[in-house]
Write a structure and sequence with these properties.
Elements (H helix, E strand, L loop, with lengths): L2 E5 L2 E3 L5 E8 L7 E7 L6 E6 L5 E2 L8 E6 L4 E6 L8 E8 L7 E2 L3 E5 L2
Amino acid sequence: QVQLVESGGGLVQPGGSLRLSCAASGIIFRFYGMGWYRQVPGKQRELVASITKDGRVTYPDSVKGRFTVSRDNAQNTVYLEMNSLQPEDTAVYYCNAAITTVPGPYWGQGSQVTVSS
C-alpha cells in the first residue's frame, strides 16, 4: 500500500519560514520524481516545486528563489523549504509521486500552510 505522509505545516507570519516533509512508503522511492503542489478553495491545484529521480529541480516564477525542494533517498523523504512566506502562499500543500505522467497517481493527505499576522 502506497502512503505519502506530509508534516510540517502550520501558521507563520509574513516573511517567515516553514519546512514541509513527505515520507513515502510502499514505493521504490528512488525511481520516482516528486512534486509539491498547493491548492486554495475554488482554484486548481498548482505545482510549486518538483525534483526528478536524478535530482533536477524546477519551480514556477511565483516561488523561485524562495522555495527549495530536496530529497533524501535513504529516508524515502522529500522536503520543501519555504522562505519569505507571504499571505498568498496560504494553501493546502500536497506531495505527489510520479514515474511517467505528471502528476502521478500518488498523493499525500495535504498539509495546511497559513501565512498571516
